[in-house]
Amino acid sequence: MANDVHEQDAGMRVVHLLRAITVELDRIGEGFAARHALHPTDVRALICLLDAARTGAPATPGILGAHLGLNSAGTTAVIDRLERLGHVRRERDTQDRRRVLLKVDESAVALGWSFFGPLIHEIVAVMGRFDAADQATVERFLGDVNEAVARQRTGRG
Amino acid sequence: MANDVHEQDAGMRVVHLLRAITVELDRIGEGFAARHALHPTDVRALICLLDAARTGAPATPGILGAHLGLNSAGTTAVIDRLERLGHVRRERDTQDRRRVLLKVDESAVALGWSFFGPLIHEIVAVMGRFDAADQATVERFLGDVNEAVARQRTGRG
DNA sequence: GACAATATCTCGCTCAGCGAGATTATTGAT
DNA sequence: ATCAATAATCTCGCTGAGCGAGATATTGTC
User: Fold this and answer.
1) pLDDT in tens, B48-85
2) B101-110 contacts: CB < 8 A, separation 24 or more?
3) CA nearest A68 in B: which residue?
4) A25–B51: do the CB atoms touch at under 8 Å?
5) Closest CA to C17 C1' — which residue?
6) Which residues of chain A have pLDDT under 50?
7) Is the CB of B79 under 7 A from strand D?
8) Could A26 and B26 be called an inter-chain contact, meaning their C-beta atoms sit closer than 8 Å?
9) pLDDT tens, residue by residue, A11-31
């Protein structure tokens, strides 16, 4: 990916670290999925639904499908799987009876915490070993990288 | 995932930033796959093979399959797809004739650069806007996070 | 009320990846 | 040298995730 002249550069080392972290997080997700009879897509769906529940945003099959990049048939299948496992239930929206509202069960919330809890704790602990000024530096850097990466995606794909 | 009392915390904001970056990078990978008639798994395989080519490490179906978490049948299928597209070719290892060495074509290297090049450039540019001390802080933080995340994975699954 | 738009679901299909086992090459023991 | 055990890869048949097309029900518009 880089010839070894550039490997010396701090920028390149950081790129590789970010990639390594991404790979590790993906693998944790896969491992979690495998241990709970879920597919990686189901885990992503759960994350999306838990986020919606946390922020109070409405969750519907349409919104979920758009977020996951699935068509309506695939989205129905994901929800069927999660419903079969008792993590989610469908409720007709009384305002607009075409729509279905997706409600996550308490078991799914607990599952989410069992997954993210230790991970969050670890990262917060790492952060705690830095002083306030360095924490601000890290936060600013990650914010900038996030913007840059998002710009790359929306710009090219 | 977090109740909103903790949202204020710099640690939690950093956790969310890391997650956002991970999601964005995954989406870029998916977009790249879709635009080149590849599956996400094929992209991961290409990355693995390009890394091996770059570091001079030998690449075989067995190593690739282990890296991707596929069994031998699935690994054969991935290599078949990449070979059909001309990105990879199989060569019998003359030392141990049970083994097949996977050689990436120049077109695959070019493809990899077209994917990672702009992304790397963007992140290096972000890094360049920080002074040397702050770059060192960022690098140390990411290294620690990487270790912590890797420890999480190997410790729990 | 007729009609286009919207949200979801059903049906049939393709193909990624799995399990089981076949094939070929290597290694080690006798 | 011979032969069993091991290793690396591939083949075959199957399951199931996700897609395209279209069916169904609800809403807003004229």
Assistant:
1) 999 999 999 999 999 999 999 999 999 999 999 999 99
2) B101/B58, B101/B59, B101/B60, B102/B49, B102/B52, B102/B59, B102/B60, B102/B61, B102/B64, B103/B53, B103/B59, B104/B46, B104/B49, B104/B50, B104/B53, B104/B59, B108/B46, B108/B49, B108/B50, B108/B82, B109/B50, B109/B53
3) B27
4) no
5) B74
6) 2-4
7) yes
8) yes
9) 999 999 999 999 889 888 888
